Structures are given as C-alpha cells and as structure tokens.
C-alpha cells in the first residue's frame, strides 16, 4: 500500500483573514508545520524569510529539488507577510505581549503538536541572528533525512524525535553560552556536517567542565536540583547531545534506541498501534485478521483543538476540554462494511485504556493490604532490629505506608530535630520535636492569574500527625544512628530495592506486589472515603483520574490533618492487635490557617462583601431604570449580579453563555442541561440541579432582557445585532449612543474587577470547596460525598457518570443531596432574588 500523506487544509482560516486561498499558500503552511489557527504566524513568517534569504547550506544548495522548494517557499512567505500584517484585528497572529514571548507561553497548546513550527518561533534579536543557518536544517530536516534513508534503511525519524528535538532546541537557544558561540560558529556552518561538529564540540566542552566520568552517580540528583550552578550546564549538555543525535540522521547515523517493553512471540505489527503525525493520530485497523497483509483501513482522529483564549483568561483547565474530529480515509471497501467495526474497536480500546488507568485490571483485594498483612508489617516495624540495614528498612517501609510514598520518594526521607516555618525542603521529612510527618504541599503547575490579594494563603508544606508507635520507632532509631539532621538513607534506589523486596516478601510470605501495596494502601483508603481531590492534597501524590478536581479544590491544612487522623483511627484496631506499643495519635493544633490546593481560591468573606456591594448597588440603580441616561448602568449591574450569584449556585463555567436558559431546563426534575465545551456529546454535557431561587432569579432576568431589548430596538438597534447575553457601554464619540458589548470572559472580568480581585471562575472553586468542606465557610453541614460533587461539577471520569450502567447514583438522589447545601451556601453568602427592569 502506498504511504498516506497527511495534508491540512487552511482554506477556512485564510479566507476569514481575507488572504487568498491557494494550493501554494496551503503547501507552504504545511511545510512550516503551521497550526490550524495560524497562532503567531507573523513572527514565524519573518523568521522563515530571514532564514531562507541566507546562503543555503550545501545539502540544500546541491539538491535541485530542495533548492527549488526553498526558492518557492521564500517567494510565498514574502507574499504572505504583508497580507498577514493587514489582519491587525487578529492579535493571535502577532508576537505575544511582553512577559509571554517564550514559546511555552506564546504558543500554549501547539508546542507538542507543531514541533517544527515551535522551533521557528523566536522574538529575541540575539537568538534570531545566531540561529539562521540552524533554521535551514530544521526546515528541511524531514526531506534531508528521507534522502539519507535512501543510503541507509536503518535511518528512522520518529515524531517523538521531532518533539524531543524541539524541546532540546528551545533550551539551547535560550542559553547565552550557546547563542554567543552560534553567532560566530554558524557563520561558517554552511553544511550540516559543520553544524553537527559544533554541537559535538559544545557537548564535549560541557562534559569536561562537568567532570561527568567522576560524577555519573550524581547526575540524577543534579538534574533535579535547579539551585545547583551546574544544573544549567548539564541541561545544555543533555539537549546538545540529543539535537546532535537527530541532526546526525542527515549524515547517515541512525539513532541507537533501547528496546522497551515485553517481547512478543511474533514480530507482526499490532493492528491498533497509534502514531502521532503533526496534530493528528494515525490509527491503522483491519477487518480481516490477516497477519500477512497490511491494514487497508485508516482512521484519522484530530488531536485536541487549540485552547480557547477565553478559557485561558477565565482560569479554566484547558486540558479538560477533550475535543476532536473523526475522519475515515482510504476506503478500499464500501463504507457500510467497516464503519460499525471501526467505531466499536475505537470505543472499546478507549474504554479499556480508561479502565486500565483507573483500576489496573485488579480488584481492591489485590491492591490493598489485608488486615493480617498489616499486622505482619507492623510487627516487623515495631521489632528491635540490630543491623543498620534492617533499621533503615524499617524507617523506609514506615514512610511508604504512613505517607503513601513510592519507594523512590521514601528513600529521600529526612529526619530533623525541628523544622522551621519557612522551610522549603522538597523531600518528605520527619520532625522529631513533635513527631509529625512533613509533606511538601502539592504544587499545581497550571497557573493563569496573578490575582492573589483576595485569595487564601497557600501553605508550603503539610504536617501530618504520627502515632506513638511511629514515634517510638524513630526515637529508637535516633538513639542508635542519628547525631544530627540528615537524610537517613545512604543507599541508592537500585541498591536498597532488592534487599527491601526480599524483606517484604519474607514478611508478607511471598504475596506479589508487596512494595506497591504498602505505598498504595492509605492512598486507596483515602480515595474510597474522601475522594481523589483530598487524597492528592493529603499525600502530594495524584491518583489516576481527572486532575481538574484538584485544580478547583482548596482545603485548609487543619482539615487535611483531621482527615488523616480519621484514617489512622480506622487502622488503630488492626495495628493494636499486632504490637504492644501505644497507638494514640500525636496531634498538636496550630492557630495558623493555611491552605493547600488551588492557587487562586478566594476567601469566602471577600465573596460575601462582593455580593453585598453588588446587591446594594443594583437595588440603588433600579430606581433609575426609567432614566434613559442611566438605565444601562442598571442593566450592567443586574447582569453582573445574576451571573456571579447563579454561577456560585450552579458552578457554571464562565464561558459562552454562562446563565441558566429556560429552554434547557427540565422543570419537573429541576435540572438544567448545559453543554459548556466544544464537543456536544454525553461526556461534555452537565446535568445541573437547580434550587428554586435560581429558577426564580432567571425568570426575572428573562423579563429584564425583554425590556432591555425593547429599548434597544426603539433606539434603532437591529434585532439580529442583539446577542443572548451582553453588557452596555456609552460610545466614546457619541455620548447619546449605546454600544453593545457581547458577553466574553474579558468583558465579564472587566465588569467584575470593580468589585473583587479574583479569577472569574472563582465560583466553581468556592462551590467545590464548600461541598468538600462546608466548615470552610463556617457552615455546620457535613461534607458531601465526593462522587456527588464530581457529578454536579462535571468532574466525573468516564464510567463514573450517574447515567453509566455501573453507577449507583441517580439525578434524583443527587438533587436531594445537593439542594439543602446550595440553599445553605446562598444564605451564608447573602444571595437574594432581585427583580430587574419591568417589561
């Protein structure tokens, strides 16, 4: 079968920018690996023109086909540049704002899908001048590798190589060491060979500076330690090696790869192997199970679309938004013969992968320790061991069990006499002064805002109480081993693991998976009782499942400590049956109120003040609705009040039209059906229970909208120009004319910023935290079961939805549980139903 080539069609986006839609433009955009939304195209065009305007490297110059392509692409780029410059209304085509010029920020969402395009993006003048010849090699690397493959069939250039090279290349050109040397060296690098030599020399120089042969054992820790002055050089060294290895493909040197995974009895290709090409995934399938034939059906699944800038601005977790378009190509047989088979395989494969990720194909009885196994483990941990190795094994296993830590983290345990409040240790620590486990706070990498003035104080670490049983073991260890604060394990993972595994096998009497089950036992216990979000924050370890739960959850350190104490109390009767040491828990309360989780969770008292101010101003301006000069202010205030308050009561994302619309309400059941994401299927649809106050408030708002639209029509605004949700502004040049501002995250944020300094999606964060821990807003209610919280906020994994065949939930049960909590939240925050402009 001939090779299937993936070509993207940019016609729609080009026509929207008034740029001619031609095969020439389409081919060029495919050549530079451009994303389908043309993000930052202006910058990449200028860099491509500068690159191709230079003298061509000999590998391109001496190849008539590549030389002709280079000339043609340069002409196309020169024609496109002025056309793109005229599209000033589309800011995403141009360089990012100050502070977001690095690809990681400016090209958010396309870095891994468009690696070549990412390498061509740079706005730094020093970088630009240094990497022009480098860019020529990057632009033509695929055809150059294809030429090399003609002489050596072992040459293989995978998409993963492209992505890894893109990452390495970006790190290299950001380094002054590299750009300074490139600025002089690459002026002579008119061949790939000289460029390869440059990278080779750079790697060797850095290797000598780092003294790598004598420091190989320290490389692992050095790569993690960013404070070490050698860290940056090691990073440059690693990336220079990899980029050199990829460029070596052009010179005929295959990349030496390690064989990963189990070997199968046959070398036949799997019929469901996926390979990413550009921003698509190519999945071969076949109806006939014939090992001697190539698959004759291919499916293209478009990868996740570019994140909506509005979603980024609102603080939403864009990784949640799984979208895609499914296309079937190369129909060698009638469509009717294989569409059903193809679809069923795709669905079953996705389902199995989800199940495997969540449950690992084993029941809880094979993941958790049995009571007898816990007693055997505790008996070993409480016994007095004489050899230093056995004592270290005790401490490591104790850390794994009580902090749910994998072995590689447990061997990094530190024991200190006292930890300071400003400590920033990234390892698990045991504090001997009051016998607490010190867990570094879970760090959410996804940050979108710098609004912190109205947000809760975030803790750097979490203190978890230890039992007297743990304290006795550590005191015994201190007397015999610990003279000062130190890391207690002096062994590397590879050295300690075999002996530890042998000890566990002996203790557990040979049952498989002992080490993993020891570190997972309290993790799974916590997931079963408190859910994934609490567990993630408790142990700084994310269990499988939707990470969005953690992005929207913030719990106080005291709440987490209380929940951990409850878990220990559940274990106490089992442990007590194995050892004589007291199992009481050492708990010391702290007056300091800190939180772990979402970085931008607002204090509920700030929300109270915001609602009270909005309510007061709305009622005040309602008296002026008859005044044609000021009624638009009342509309804006009333709209803002309704959006903010119903958002808190429903958890609606502030995207698209974030209000409860009557046509999507199932009134007898008091349920609102909401599609908030780009894909309209059952997995991106939420079923939101509504309390009576929300329904009544939305009825008043619908009447208000009718009155406002009537006034706008009388003022000459065409009906078609009035959107579903909008704000009003006075035209700057005509004080007697109103301008309609359609709802968007930015327009909502502009209005809301006058009353609260917090992200616009704070409503979801506050609602989730209230349901997880009602005491966070001084309520006496008990926490809501985590599976109901996930159902209400749309955070359930596939297979966990209330309509799933394996679910024990129902929407009626969800409503009956949630309704009193939403009423309680409304009362505490002071949310009242307000009437709008009468129609």
Characterize the structure shown:
The chain is an alpha+beta fold and 839 residues long. The chain is 48% helix and 8% strand. It has 33 helices and 16 strands. Helix 28 (631-650) packs parallel to helix 31 (762-772). Residues 1-5, 213-217, 259-307, 317-338, 355-362 and 482-486 have low confidence and may be disordered.
Quick structural overview:
The chain is of the alpha+beta class. Helix content is 48%, strand content 8%. Strands 8-7-6-5-9 form a five-stranded mixed sheet.
Summarize the helices and strands and which ones pair or pack:
Layout: H1 11-16, H2 23-31, H3 41-53, H4 58-61, H5 64-85, H6 103-106, H7 115-119, H8 125-130, H9 132-139, H10 141-149, H11 159-173, H12 176-185, H13 192-210, H14 219-224, H15 231-247, E1 275-277, E2 280-285, E3 297-302, H16 309-314, E4 326-329, H17 335-359, H18 371-382, H19 388-403, H20 407-410, E5 414-416, E6 429-431, E7 436-440, E8 461-465, H21 468-480, E9 486-487, H22 493-508, H23 514-530, H24 532-539, H25 548-551, E10 554-556, H26 557-576, E11 595-597, H27 604-622, H28 631-650, E12 665-666, E13 671-675, E14 685-689, H29 692-714, E15 726-730, E16 738-742, H30 745-752, H31 762-772, H32 786-793, H33 811-829
Parallel strand pairs: 5-6
Antiparallel strand pairs: 1-2, 2-3, 3-4, 5-9, 6-7, 7-8, 10-11, 12-13, 13-14, 15-16
């Amino acid at each position: 079968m001939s090779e299937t080539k993936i070509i993207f069609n940019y016609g729609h986006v080009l026509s929207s920018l008034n740029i001619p839609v031609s095969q020439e433009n389409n081919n060029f955009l495919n050549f530079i690996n451009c994303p389908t939304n043309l993000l930052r195209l202006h910058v990449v065009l200028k860099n491509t023109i500068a690159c191709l305007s230079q003298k061509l490297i000999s590998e391109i110059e001496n190849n008539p086909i590549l030389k002709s392509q280079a000339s043609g692409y340069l002409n196309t780029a020169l024609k496109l540049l002025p056309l793109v410059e005229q599209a000033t209304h589309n800011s995403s085509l141009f360089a990012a704002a100050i502070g977001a010029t690095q690809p990681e920020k400016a090209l958010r969402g396309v870095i891994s899908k468009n690696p070549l395009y990412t390498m061509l993006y740079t706005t730094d003048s020093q970088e630009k001048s240094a990497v022009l010849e480098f860019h020529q090699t990057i632009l033509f690397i695929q055809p150059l590798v294809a030429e090399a493959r003609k002489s050596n069939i072992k040459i293989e250039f995978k998409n993963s190589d492209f992505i890894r090279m893109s990452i390495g290349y970006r790190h290299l050109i950001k380094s002054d060491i590299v750009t300074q040397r490139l600025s002089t060296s690459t002026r002579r690098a008119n061949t790939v060979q000289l460029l390869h030599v440059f990278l080779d020399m750079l790697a060797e120089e850095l290797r000598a500076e780092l003294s790598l042969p004598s420091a190989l054992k320290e490389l692992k820790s050095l790569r993690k330690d960013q404070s070490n002055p050698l860290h940056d050089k090691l990073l440059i060294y690693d990336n220079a090696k990899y980029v050199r290895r990829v460029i070596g493909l052009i010179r005929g040197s295959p990349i030496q790869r390690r064989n990963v995974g189990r070997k199968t009895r046959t070398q036949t290709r799997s019929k469901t192997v996926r390979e990413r090409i550009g921003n698509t995934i190519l999945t071969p399938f076949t109806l006939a199970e014939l090992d001697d034939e190539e698959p004759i059906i291919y499916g293209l699944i478009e990868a996740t679309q570019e994140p909506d800038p509005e979603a980024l601005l609102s603080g939403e977790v864009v990784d949640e938004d799984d979208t895609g378009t499914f296309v079937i190509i190369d129909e060698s047989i009638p469509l009717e013969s294989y569409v059903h088979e193809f679809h069923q395989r795709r669905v079953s494969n996705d389902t199995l992968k989800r199940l495997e990720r969540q449950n690992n194909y084993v029941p809880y009885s094979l993941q958790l320790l049995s009571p007898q196994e816990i007693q055997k483990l505790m008996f070993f941990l409480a016994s007095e061991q004489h050899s230093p190795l056995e004592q270290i094994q005790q401490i490591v296993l104790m850390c794994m069990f009580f902090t749910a830590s994998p072995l590689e983290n447990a061997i990094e345990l530190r024991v200190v006499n006292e930890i300071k409040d400003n400590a920033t240790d990234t390892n698990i620590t045991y504090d001997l002064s009051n016998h607490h486990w010190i867990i570094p706070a879970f760090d959410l990498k996804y940050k979108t805002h710098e609004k912190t003035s109205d947000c809760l104080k975030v803790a750097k670490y979490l203190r978890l109480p230890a039992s007297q049983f743990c304290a006795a073991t550590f005191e015994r260890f201190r007397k015999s081993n610990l003279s000062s604060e130190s890391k207690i394990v002096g062994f590397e993972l590879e050295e300690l693991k075999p002996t530890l595994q042998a000890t566990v096998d002996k203790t557990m009497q040979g049952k498989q998976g002992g080490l993993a089950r020891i570190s997972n036992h309290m993790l799974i216990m916590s997931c079963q009782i408190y859910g994934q979000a609490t567990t993630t924050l408790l142990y700084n370890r994310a269990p499988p499942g939707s990470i969005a739960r953690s992005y929207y959850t913030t719990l106080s350190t005291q709440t987490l400590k209380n929940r951990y104490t409850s878990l220990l109390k559940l274990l106490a009767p089992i442990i007590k049956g194995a050892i004589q040491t007291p199992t009481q828990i050492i708990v010391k309360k702290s007056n300091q109120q800190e939180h772990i989780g979402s970085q931008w969770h607002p204090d509920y008292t700030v929300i109270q003040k915001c609602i009270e101010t909005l309510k007061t101003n709305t009622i005040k301006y309602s008296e002026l609705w008859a005044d044609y000069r000021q009624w638009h202010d009342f509309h804006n205030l009333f709209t803002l009040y309704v959006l903010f308050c119903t958002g808190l009561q429903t958890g609606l994302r502030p995207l698209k039209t974030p209000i409860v619309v009557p046509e999507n309400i199932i009134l007898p059941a008091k349920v609102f059906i909401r599609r908030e994401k780009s894909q309209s299927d059952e997995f991106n649809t939420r079923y939101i229970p509504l309390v009576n106050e929300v329904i009544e408030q939305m009825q008043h708002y619908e009447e208000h909208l009718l009155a406002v639209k009537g006034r706008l029509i009388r003022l000459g605004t065409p009906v078609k120009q009035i959107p579903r949700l909008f704000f009003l502004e006075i035209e700057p040049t005509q004080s007697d004319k109103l301008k309609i501002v359609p709802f968007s995250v930015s327009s909502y944020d502009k209005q809301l910023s006058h009353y609260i300094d917090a992200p616009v999606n704070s409503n979801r964060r506050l609602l989730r935290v209230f349901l997880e821990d009602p005491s966070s807003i001084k309520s006496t209610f008990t926490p809501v079961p985590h599976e109901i919280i996930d159902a209400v906020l749309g955070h359930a994994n596939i297979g966990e939805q209330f309509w799933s065949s394996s679910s024990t939930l129902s929407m009626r049960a969800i409503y009956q549980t949630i309704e009193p909590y939403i009423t309680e939240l409304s009362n505490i925050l002071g949310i009242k139903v307000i009437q709008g402009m009468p129609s």
